[in-house]
Amino acid sequence: MNAIHKILIANRGEIAVRIIRTTKKLGITSVAVYSQADSDSLHVTMADEAWCIGEIELSETYLNIPKIIAVAKQTGCDAIHPGYGFLAENPLFVTACIEAGIIFIGPRPEAMRIMGNKIEARAFVKKINIPMTEGVTGSKEELEKRAHLIGFPVLLKAAAGGGGKGMCIVYKETELAEAIEATSRQANAYFGDETVYIEKFIEEPRHIEVQILGDNFGNVIHLFERECSIQRRYQKIIEESPSPTLTPAVREKMGAAAVAIGKAIGYNNAGTIEFLVDHDLNFYFLVMNTRIQVEHPVTEMVTGIDLIEEQIYIAAGNTLRLQPEDLHQSGHAIECRIYAEDPANNFQPSPGRMTFYKEPDVPGIRIDTGVTAGTEIKSSFDPMICKLVVWGKDRHDARLAMLLALEDYIIHGINTNITYLVKLLQSEAFISNTITTKFCDEHTAALASHIMGEKNAIPAHVPMIGYLMYTLKRNLKTTPECCEKPNLWEAIGYWRNQMSIRMQFEEEEITVKVPGYSEARYVFEIRGIRYHASPLSFSPNRIDFTIDHHNYFAWISENGENQAYVSTGGHIFRLRRHDILAESVFASGFDTHGRDSNHVTSPMHGKVIPADH
């Protein structure tokens, strides 16, 4: 058996970490490359070696072919794995690897060139009689003249496009000319090629793709399908396998079509054939991705096959060791992509530093991520935090497992789509599988409204009391394990008969009175109503407590500006105690360098004198 001994990973984030995990399993040495902005990233610390190749510009780092090849040669790598994105589907990169005598873990450049251009790909697939939607190619003028031949609505696409960019649905002929110009500009900006083409737009489509593997000896197999119909801005956010839509007969036909494409093009590694499926289960070739897919874990979960391992095995020059009769789908897997974004604001990215990061403590799940608790989500990269994957004996069990995992996934400090995903999975459309690729476009406003209504229904006193007891209890003498930033007044003790604490709850200013408290029992007065509360247990970032004999728990974190985030009831609330100085305010504070809790410092020299002096 041919073997690879050292691999450079020309990528970052979760896919780089994913590849490193397989290299460790196989005993292969891994080399990471990184930009200075990624110096604290997980893939850098996990790799056996890590080399900085620039500051932050992609052209100087993850897209710089000469630098990456130079590091691979300098470190003695016999192969490069590109992951997905960046240079993964760049035939020039493949050629550079070949010329440098380095194995590229992926297909031949010829397959990339053909499938990387959507017009060429359609022409190639048409020759082997694979079903596809009607289309029109040519100059902008020709597109305008001939679009009516296939009928509206039509879909404009960038010929060199991918990732959902450079696409536009046109419903009326009068809108076509302007749409062609806009899409061409976008295509040129993203891909350096303004060529666009038109294909028939399928109403209410499903997006279903087939995973294939090919070797260097003409053998090609498929590892079944993944359904990826839940998308926002043409990018997938939920994937599952097997597809709940296909019949066994259609599944077999789609698999055979995917293998036929792979064999016709001489495909020699992992790849994916994507199809659109209409409501009558007619399927149409959409695109081929000549790389490992983001959503490959769902295939791994139902087949038990490590696709990265197979990629490495094939690239080393071995024949396929998997036969179709050995493969089957077992159970059901669902993947949710966790993004730093705000679904209520058109899914705008939400970069920043997390104040708290807790992965689900649920058995049987898989988390593919490139972040840790201290990672900053940077605006210069894709805002995906992780891929959360679950397995169940059927779709119903997998959906319930995913809900449990999402509800136990706590991230503070940035916006995420976690709550949105929960509501999506709870929707009747998902449960009954009446979804299409337009689901997010049609239902996000209603889901966001439902989320906000559910959050507003949680009584404000619950997160407020949880936060107050957590911070009041955070006393050096009583609970040192919770003492992250004890404030001055807690350390010396309140001397008033009754505490009155001014707080900000979301956008509202509220004063909370504390007419009575002890270590085990508190009385809070909020908006004229008294609540009797008791803490049950404390741990870092968590409090379990009762209010008037009802049980609650909350996850709590704070940033340097004294902004607190409290998760309770499945929602996150923003709070602030105005009686605690933020870390960024230097008017007073503990001498943390000397760890002297009895020493108060001032930023200016001065003298304390009696008030009546």
Please summarize what this structure is.
With 613 residues, this protein is α+β, with helices and mostly antiparallel strands.
Describe the protein in words:
The protein is about 30% helix and about 30% strand. By secondary structure, it is α+β, with helices and mostly antiparallel strands. Among the domains are: about 5-105, Rossmann fold; about 135-200, Dna Ligase, domain 1, CATH 3.30.1490.20; about 340-455, 2-Layer Sandwich (D-amino Acid Aminotransferase, Chain A, domain 1); about 460-600, Glycoprotein, Type 4 Pilin. Helix 4 runs antiparallel to helix 5 (about 110-115), helix 12 runs antiparallel to helix 13 and helix 13 (about 420-425) crosses helix 15. The chain is globular, with a radius of gyration of 28 Å.
Reading off the top of the CATH hierarchy, the class of the domain at 461-600 is best stated as Alpha Beta
For the biggest β-sheet, the strand order reads 14-13-10-11-12-15-22-20
Give the overall silhouette.
globular
Sheet-strand content, in percent, reads 25-35%
Total number of strands: 33
Annotation keywords:
D-amino Acid Aminotransferase, Chain A, domain 1; Dna Ligase, domain 1; 29% helix; 613 residues; Rossmann fold; globular; eight-stranded antiparallel sheet
Ordered list of secondary-structure elements with their pairings:
Blueprint: E1 6-9, H1 13-26, E2 29-34, H2 42-46, E3 49-52, H3 65-74, E4 79-81, H4 91-99, E5 103-104, H5 109-116, H6 118-127, E6 135-136, H7 140-146, E7 154-162, E8 165-170, H8 176-191, E9 196-200, E10 206-214, E11 220-232, E12 235-241, H9 248-265, E13 270-277, E14 283-289, H10 296-303, H11 307-315, E15 332-339, E16 341-342, E17 348-349, E18 352-353, E19 356-358, E20 365-369, E21 376-377, E22 384-392, H12 395-407, E23 410-412, H13 418-426, H14 428-431, H15 439-456, H16 461-472, H17 488-492, E24 499-505, E25 508-517, E26 522-526, E27 529-539, E28 542-547, E29 550-558, E30 564-568, E31 571-577, E32 590-591, E33 596-600
Parallel strand pairs: 1-2, 1-4, 2-3, 4-5
Antiparallel strand pairs: 6-9, 7-8, 7-9, 10-11, 10-13, 11-12, 12-15, 13-14, 15-22, 16-17, 18-21, 19-23, 20-22, 24-25, 24-31, 25-26, 26-27, 27-28, 28-29, 29-30, 30-31, 32-33
